[in-house]
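#lab-general

N.A. 3:47 PM
ok so I finally got the sequence cleaned up, no stray characters, all 604 residues accounted for. can someone with queue access submit it? mine expired

B.Y. 3:52 PM
send it over

N.A. 3:53 PM
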Amino acid sequence: MKHIYEFGNIQKRILIVTLSCIVGMCLIVSSASYYIFHNYLQQNMIHSTQINLQLLSDTIDSSINDVYRMVLFCQTNSEIATYIKNNPTPDSRLAVTTYDRMIEEYNNNPHKTYIPRVAVITKDHFLQICDAAYSTTADLAEIVPTLPYFDSLLSNSSYNFSIGLIADPFRKNRIVIPIIRPITYKYTSVQGGYLFLEVSSDLFTAPLSKYSHAEDSNIYLTMSDHNYILNNGTFMEISASYEITDTLTDASLHTDTSIVQIKDNDGKKRVIVTTPLDIPDCYLSQSISSHEFQTQQRLFLALLCGILVGILAIGILLIIIMNQMIHIPVAKLRSKIQRIAGGDFSRDPNIEWNHELGDIGRGINNLSESVTLLMNKRIKDEKQKRDLEYQMLQSQINPHFIYNTLNSIKWMATIQGATGISQMSTALARLLKSISKGTQLLVPIREELSLLEDYFTIQNYRYGGTITFDIIVDHDDIYDSKIIKFTLQPLVENAIFHGIEPKGSVGTIVLHAYYETVTEDDMCTICIDVTDNGVGMSSEKMAQVLSMRQDTRADFFQEIGICNVHRRLRYEFGDRYGITIKSTVGEFTTMSIHIPKQQITQET
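B.Y. 4:20 PM
back already:
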C-alpha cells in the first residue's frame, strides 16, 4: 500500500507540473508571438510604404530633373546669353533664332507638360514659350519684377522650390511653382536678364493619381517652410503641428529615409515615412494606415487565441490519457526487473505493449535474452579461438616439415653426385624458409636479391641454362635499403614467361640498381631496372599490365602479379613511386621499380 500511495503521489506531481508547464508555455509563447508579430507587422508595413514611396519619389525626381535641365539650358545657352546682351526687339532676327532654339529644347523635354510657361526676360523685352491656352498679352518684362517673391527667388543662391505652391499670376485657377533665375552676359558674371519658369503642380499630383494607398493613409508634401496634404487629388497647405514621440530610423531600408512616430493635436499616434526629393528642402511623406495595422493585429490575436485554446485542450487530454497508461505498465516493468535481478532471464510477453513503455518492455526482454546469448557466444568464441590457434600451429609446422625434407633430398643428391638436384633443392628450401619467416613487409634489398637468385636458379634448370641473369648494383649502400618483400621476383618472372619464353631462343635478363635524381623534397630515390631482350610489348599491353592482374599459372609468386606489386609500392611509399615500363616490340622490355632510399635499422 505504501508503494501505491507513493506512485499516486508521483502521478499527481507529474499532472500538476505538466499542466503548469503547458499553461506557462502558452503564456510565454502568446506574449512572445504577439510582440514579434507586432514588430514584424509594423516593420513590414513601414518597408512596404517606404518601397512604394521610393518608387513614387523616383518618378517625381525624374520630372524634377527634366525641369532643372530646362532651367540650366536657359541659364547657360550661348544664344540666349547673346540675346540677353543685345536686348533686341521681338521681331528681330536674333530674337527669332533664339526663340527657335528655346522651342526646340522645350519640345525635346520629356516632361514639358509640367512646364506650362518658360520666359527669358531682358530689361525691355521677353521671349515666352507656353501653350495657347495659357498664353497672355501681359508684358512679362514689366509685370514679373513686381511680383512679391521676385527679389527673393532671383537672389537665392540655388535652384529650389522654397516659394511653394501658389496661384499662377497670369492665369486663375491654376497652381504652379514659380522659378526665377538670373541669366548673365556671355563670358561675364554680370546679370543681364532672368528666367521666369512655372512648374505645374501636376508634377506631383499626376503620379499620385495612380498611387494606391489606404483611406486613412495621408500623403504629405514639404517644400521648405510649406507643408501640404493631398486631398481629392490636390495639395492643400496645412500647419505642421505635431509632437515626435519616437524615432524608428533603424527600420529604414535606406539611410536617407526618416521614419518617426508623431502625436497630432487629436492625440492620435501615427508613423510617418519621409523620403527626400531631388530638390533642396523638398520631401514626400506618407503615414502608415492605422486601420490596416489594427485589422491585421485583430486577425492575428484571434488566430493566436484559437491556437492556444487548442493546445491547452490537447495538453489536458494527453495528461488524462498518459495518467491512465502509466500506472499498470510501470508496475509490471518494475516486477520484471526484479525477476531479472533474481536470475530469471525468460521472456515475458505481458510487458510488450504497443506504445513507448511497450518498447521499453521489449528492450528488457531482448536484454534478458541477450545475456544468455552472450554467455553462449563467449563459450563458442573461446572454442573457435583454441581451434584457430591449433590451425596456425599446423600452418607453421608444414613449411618447416617441407624445408627439412628438401634438406634431406639435397644431401642424398650430393652423396649420389646429382649436383643439379642438390642446387634446386637448396634454392627451393631457401625460398620456402623465406616464406615461412612471417609477414614482414619491408626487407633489405640484399635479402630480396638473395631470394631472387634462388628463384632464378630453379628457373634456369627448368629452361636448361638458356637464360642468363646478371645483377648490377652501383652503390653498396643500396643493399641495405628497404624494399617490400617479394617485389623483384614477379618482374623477373614476367621477363621469363612473357618476354624470353615466347621468343623461343636464348635470352638475357639484367637487373640494374642505382640512384635516381634527387626529388623535390630532397629525398633520394632508388631505381631498379629489370631488362630482358625478349619479344617486348605494345603500349596497350603495358597499360594492361599495370591496371589488372595477369592470368598466369597459379603458383605462389605469380599470384602476386605486376599490378599488385605496383599498387603495394604506391600504398607504402606514395603516388610518386611504383613501376614504370619501357618496351620496344621485338627488342626489349624494361620494368623499373622506383622506391625511396630507406636504410634498414640494425637491431642489437
